[in-house]
Write a structure and sequence with these properties.
The protein has four helices and eight strands. With about 130 residues, it is of the alpha+beta class. The strands form two sheets. Strands 1-5-6-4 form a four-stranded antiparallel β-sheet. A four-stranded antiparallel β-sheet has the order 2-3-8-7, with helices on one face. Helix 2 crosses helix 3. The longest helix has 13 residues. The radius of gyration is 15 Å and the shape is elongated.
């Protein structure tokens, strides 16, 4: 029996694209730093983000790794994707089936406090997928 690696279509999604500067640092499409901090302040959201931090994963894998229900996994993946911290693509298996895979698009999130307020800088990986240690 021959196994085939599924092909992944990783075309960028216009709705979740980040603005990157010359150093690869990104700001998430005008997202409010307080909203991002609130999002990341939730333990379940962090577990879901950690599940996709080291490699692309299906929602089924996220459910197992983050120890959450399928509905909860999708809800948190959607929120993370909306915030520009996670991206997704459709994966086509050799047998004709397909599913979504999710991966973190950030390696580091820096919070800076100044007299002007709070700023969040999202540091992405060079290839668009995370290679952090979760």
């Amino acid at each position: 029996m021959t196994t085939h690696q599924p092909s992944i279509d990783r075309s960028p999604d216009d709705e979740t694209a980040n603005d990157e500067d010359a150093d690869g640092a990104a700001t998430t499409d005008g997202a409010d730093p307080a909203d991002l901090l609130s999002l990341l302040g939730d333990g379940t959201t962090r577990r879901v983000l950690e599940a996709v931090a080291d490699q692309p994963r299906s929602a089924r894998e996220v459910v197992e790794l983050a120890d959450v229900s399928r509905v909860t996994a999708y809800r948190h993946l959607d929120r993370l994707e909306g915030a520009g911290l996670v991206d997704s693509a459709t994966v086509y298996d050799s047998n004709g089936h397909h599913h979504a895979e999710y991966w973190a698009v950030c390696e580091e999130i820096v919070v800076e406090f100044s007299g002007d307020g709070v700023e969040l800088v999202v540091q992405g990986s060079d290839d668009g997928s995370a290679s952090g240690d979760g």
